[in-house]
Specification:
By secondary structure, the protein is an alpha/beta fold. The protein has a single domain, classed as Vaccinia Virus protein VP39 (Rossmann fold, 3-Layer(aba) Sandwich). It contains 8 helices and 9 strands. The strands form 2 sheets. Strands 3-2-1-4-5-9-8 form a 7-stranded mixed sheet. A two-stranded antiparallel sheet has the order 6-7. Helix 6 runs parallel beside helix 8. It binds S-adenosylmethionine. The site of S-adenosylmethionine has 17 residues, from helix 1. S-adenosylmethionine (SAM) binds next to helix 1.
């Protein structure tokens, strides 16, 4: 069975079990904040780009909150893709209620239809998306196909170096020494877990099994470059954006990055 079948089930289960209040603040935050749900570093970067009449998209959009937030920048349309059908149903309903010109599609990113080729001015990938793909060349092939010529890709993600450290609840995690290196930077075998999606569900629970993959920075850069795209910006930061490595923040360890890339 393809690992994404398990991951789809695990993400749908997580959405059904999400902690009380999670996702309930979309209306109020959209009404009261300039750019809700978008981390500061990405928000600051986006002030440099024109969104007027732009078609934007998010790959792995979860419940749509980040894309709906990005619509506040003035894009003409937003399209979100995610494998979890219940999240997509929620996102379409919410966007309809809020009268946003957003459309959410339930699909594995690798199977996005060719009818979306050359469709988007900007594509966004945010925290915790890349780990769900074994082969980033295939993932970025789809990004490149969906971007219009000269279209831009924005990635704000966990740094690949985070994969070297243990996280709370893992067997090899040493609470007294969270900076202890427990995994190879070049780890090829997947993480196979069934302890839940903590950030949505609040506490560990015995969940459906899910599979995720670590990638090196060169995997990411080559995946982009080898699909006909240039990298126009890469910034690394020593603070955590995932809620998993907060003890390591501000200690000189690369924990997150921002990348901008342009299709040729
Ligand atoms: C950690 S979230 C990242 C999105 C967003 N930054 C967030 O925090 O909500 C990961 C998302 O990837 C989706 N996902 C996992 N594998 C996928 C695949 N093969 N195709 C499309 N979406 C996938 C999951 O359903 C989940 O909503």
């Amino acid at each position: 069975m393809d690992y994404t079948v398990n991951n789809k089930e695990a993400w749908e289960e997580a959405f059904n079990k999400h902690k009380e209040g999670w996702g309930d603040d979309i209306n109020s935050r959209l009404a009261n904040e300039n750019l809700p749900f978008i981390e500061e570093v990405l928000a600051e970067e986006l002030t440099r780009y024109d969104f007027k009449a732009k078609a934007i998209a998010q790959f792995c959009c979860n419940n749509g909150r980040e894309l709906m937030g990005l619509m506040k920048l003035g894009a003409s349309s937003g399209t979100g893709f995610d494998i979890a059908e219940n999240m997509i149903a929620f996102a379409n309903k919410k966007a309809g209620e809020l009268e946003l010109n957003c459309n959410f599609i339930a699909t594995d990113i690798r199977d996005i239809k060719e009818s979306y080729n050359n469709s988007f001015d900007y594509i966004f990938i945010t925290i915790g998306a890349l780990a769900w793909f074994r082969d980033l060349k295939v993932f970025f092939e789809k990004v490149a196909a969906c971007l219009k010529p000269q279209g831009l890709l924005f990635i704000h993600e966990m740094h690949p170096v985070t994969g070297m450290f243990g996280v709370y609840g893992e067997e090899n995690f040493d609470e007294s020494m969270p900076e202890k290196v427990v995994n190879s930077y070049f780890k090829e075998e997947p993480w196979i877990e069934n302890n839940g999606m903590g950030y949505m569900c609040g506490k560990d629970y015995e969940s459906k099994t899910f599979y995720s993959y670590s990638h090196t920075l060169s995997d990411i850069l080559n995946g982009i470059i080898q699909n006909g795209m240039n990298i126009t910006k890469l910034k690394e930061f020593d603070y955590d954006i995932s809620e998993s490595f907060q003890e390591l923040s501000n200690k000189g360890i690369p924990l997150s990055f921002l990348l901008v890339s342009q299709k040729k």
